[in-house]
Amino acid sequence: MTPLSERFPEIGRYAASELSRMRVIAAVATTVLIGACFLSMACSPLGSKDELFKGAILVQALVVLVYGTARAAGAVRAERQEKTWDMQRLTPLSSFEIAFGKCIGAPLFSYFLAILMLPWAIVGVFVSNGAVSFTTLLGSQAFLAALTFLAVSSGLLVSSHTIERVSKPIAEVLGLFLGIFAITVFMGVVTTHSARSHVVYFDHDWSEFPWLTTSALLFGLWAFMGANWRIGRDLLEGGRIWRLPAFMAFLLLFQAGLLEENYHAITLAALVLVYAAALLNPEGHEQWRKWLSGKRFLSNDIPVAVATSLSYVLYAAFSTEFLLLYWNPQNNADWRMPLLLSLFLVRDCAILQGFRFFKIRYPEAITMIFSGLSYALPIMVLKSLDADRFIYIFAPYPDDDVGVIRNILPSLLQALAMLSILLLVIRKRFWAAASAGCKP
Amino acid sequence: MGSIIIEVDALRREFDETLAVDGVSFSVEEGAVFALVGPNGAGKTTLMRMLAALLEPSSGTARINGMDIREQPRAVHSLLGFLPDFYGLYDELAICEYLRFFYHAYRLPREMIGRRIEEIQAHVGLEGYGDRQIGTLSRGMRQKLSLARAILHDPKILLLDEPAGGLDLESREEMQALLKGLARTGKTIIVSSHILSELEDYCSHVAMMDQGRLLFAGSLTDARRRLPAGRRFRLRAAAGVERAVLQLEAQGGVSHVERHGSDVVFEFDGDQPAVAEVVKALVGAGVSLTHFSEAAGTIQDSYNALMKGSR
To answer: Do residue B101 and residue A93 have CB atoms under 8 angstroms apart?
Structure first.
């Protein structure tokens, strides 16, 4: 036991199970072999001189970003499934100690493999004949570390929100998806990086690696804090759900510094996150009853679907304001996009919660199918009838040819209709039950 | 027995539309060994998980050593050891690694680690198995390891949910011996089980539950007083057992006559002179009595009587 694993016992536990002697020997032998292969390619007359460097960092990225993220994405879910979670909950370990322990511990073997590949990356710089500099090596390692923190924390965030009832594949596919996305970003940046690479942010030129590394660290920190909050909720720690709104505010600020063409990607990424959080938390009657019978609206008991939708609506409102004021040089209808997305999100979350209240089996899967069809079917029908001009009624589509109110009204009505139905259900189920004496 | 250490106040838990625990109230004195009995689905496990501050009640509360499970769940956790009705072990670890992990997780003094882990292994009968991988252990050994984890930090209160569940006879006896040993150390124990006869040996108090409701909570003596009005008698006859059965069935005030080999058990609702008359009638009928006594009621009898009454 090292002081680190004494402070974070999870690290010691993972080290005991992940780093057995056989695995360590196999890992060393494998990395030596892989490195030797890349070295022979780099030294061959036909090979590119930076082959070893690129090969080594690709292996590093593959193991930590794909395997490591997948391990983190299963960390809390597996404990819930194996019923070891309650045992940890009974210890004095705080949510931070558990979350940090899992961030380091769950992907431990992948970190070990990445460290074993580092000497090969250094050799790669020497054999590249100046094609790769030490600055690039340091920059890529720092960026990889930050991106790993982001990917692993996001994996842990997904895992901490995955309740055993929600099917295991959702968490694992999301983990894998996160990892693949991260590695695509990483390799894209590293392979196109040059000494002149820079990012224009708030009208200033920033060196690419430091800017990306800082951004990844900031987003990683948020994901880690989100996982920490969710684990803390299991530990009945009673933390406030302020992190998501705070993240949305940060996202808005972050977004404000980017060039105008990037804002849709960020808006959609935030939306995916919100949908994932709402789908992964199967909060039924009990959670809603607790929240509705509580004294505060913004309490720790607030259902995740409500908290995430509200945060996104606020984000969309501010984002629209920004778009109207600063980011819309073309003066088109694009600024309506965040608003439309948030209204459809509210509609879908209301449908999801409705399915949960009506005790439909696999409400998350049914919602995904129902929502998917509600977008896809009308679009297909309208396209086949050559009536594209009505798409805005059924999907978040900012249409330049229709006025603002006409564009927003259909989604607003759908959201309000679904919310009204949900409120009726809540009235019937909770307030009627409360008057019958079920309310605490 | 000492002061009240666990106080349960109108505890209620619903799972969506299912009512698992319905306004349960009772208290447990320090040092008591409290048996929680009831059929499957009675709400025992839900009650245990609420007392362990792992599950929030829908309403009501409980105070463990003066701490409210709703307001100070983390403080409650440190006071108790909980053995759930599942193992919850890390199969890929060795026994020593598992105990070491929880030793650090419980923030126990690092200088004592080796001694405490050896001590606890010896206590539960796992000495010499430290390097065995948990995944390869038998059910009995897994349950012992779970118990070792629950008592590793020497908690004042133990919550044991079906500790003998799923074990074979030999492992059950070993587990019972362990629990008796724990009961002697003065810890407050709440133990749930289906096997009531085993609980009777070391429990001081009992609570009976059915369909989420508490039917009875009190001392074993109080539980026995809950027996139905009819007193139970047992006789043994060297000869004429059939005649004894016939005679008893014909006797007024006698009911529930059961024959077990040369023994006959029956209920009789009469005073002492009436009992003497029954004995006289039996002897007169040619029954060679070798034993006649009033049978003490068991928890099982009380439990059966209460269950009959509740349904």
So the answer is: no
Mean pLDDT of A349-367: 85
- Mean pLDDT over all residues of chain B? 87
- Residue A279: strand pairing partners: none
**CA dist., res. A224 & res. A230, Å (int):** 10
The helix or strand, by DSSP H or E, that contains position A142, with its residue range, turns out to be helix A134-161
Please tell me whether residues B109 and B138 are part of one structural domain. Answer: yes
Q: Is B71 at the interface with chain A, CB within 8 A?
A: no
The answer to whether the CB atoms of B104 and A290 lie below 8 A apart is no
Q: How big is chain A by its Cα radius of gyration, in Å?
A: 24
Taking CA–CA distances from B58, the nearest residue in chain A reads: A440
Report CA B126 to chain centroid distance, whole Å.
Answer: 24
Domain count, chain B: 2
A237 contacts B74? CB cut-off 8 A = yes
Task: Identify the DSSP state of B297.
Answer: P
Is residue B307 situated within a structural domain? no
Interface contact flag, A285 B86, Cβ < 8 Å: no
Nearest beta carbon to residue B52 from set A5, A90, A439: A90
Would residue B21 count as lying in a domain?
yes
Inter-chain residue contact A91 with B73, CB threshold 8 Å: no
Q: Does residue B213 share a domain with residue B248?
A: no
pLDDT at A437: 45
Q: Would you give per-residue pLDDT tens digits along chain B (311 residues)?
A: 568 999 999 999 988 778 899 999 999 999 899 999 888 888 999 999 999 999 989 889 999 999 999 889 989 998 999 999 888 899 999 999 999 999 999 999 988 899 999 999 998 889 889 999 999 999 889 999 999 999 999 999 999 998 887 777 788 888 888 888 888 888 899 999 876 777 777 888 889 888 899 988 888 777 766 655 567 788 998 888 889 999 898 888 888 888 888 889 888 877 778 888 899 999 988 899 998 887 766 666 667 766 766 66
pLDDT tens-digit readout, A264-283: 677 777 788 788 778 877 77
Name the residue range of residue B173's domain. Answer: 4-225
Using the Cβ of A130 and the Cβ atoms of chain B, whether some distance falls under 8 Å is answered with: no
> How many residues are listed for chain B in this entry?
311
Last-in-domain residue among B225, B245, B278: B225
| Annotated domain spans of chain A | 1-239, 252-440
Decide if A235 touches B, using CB distance below 8 A: yes
Q: Are residues B235 and B221 in the same domain?
A: no
Q: Are residues B218 and B239 in the same domain?
A: no
| Helix, coil or strand: residue A318 | helix
**CATH number for the domain including B252?**
3.30.70.100
Enter the DSSP assignment of A62: I
Q: Please indicate, yes or no, whether residues B69 and B115 belong to a single structural domain of this protein.
A: yes
Contacting residues of B for A83, CB less than 8 Å apart: 84, 86-88
The C-alpha atoms of residue B81 and residue B234 are separated, in whole angstroms, by 42
Task: Find the length of chain A.
Answer: 440
ipTM above 0.90, yes or no: no
Q: How far is CA A295 from CA A159, A292, A426, B60, B93, in A?
A: 30, 8, 17, 16, 44
Assess whether B117 and B160 both reside in one domain: yes
Last residue of a domain, one of B167, B201, B225: B225
Whether B72 is covered by a domain: the verdict is yes
Question: Is residue A88 within 8 angstroms of chain B, CB to CB?
Answer: yes
| B interface test, pick of A95, A236, A286, A292 with most B CB neighbours within 10 Å | A236
Q: What DSSP string describes B108-123?
A: --GGGHHHHHHHHHHH
B88 and A12 within 8 Å at the Cβ level: the answer is no
Residue B239: inside a domain, yes or no?
Answer: yes
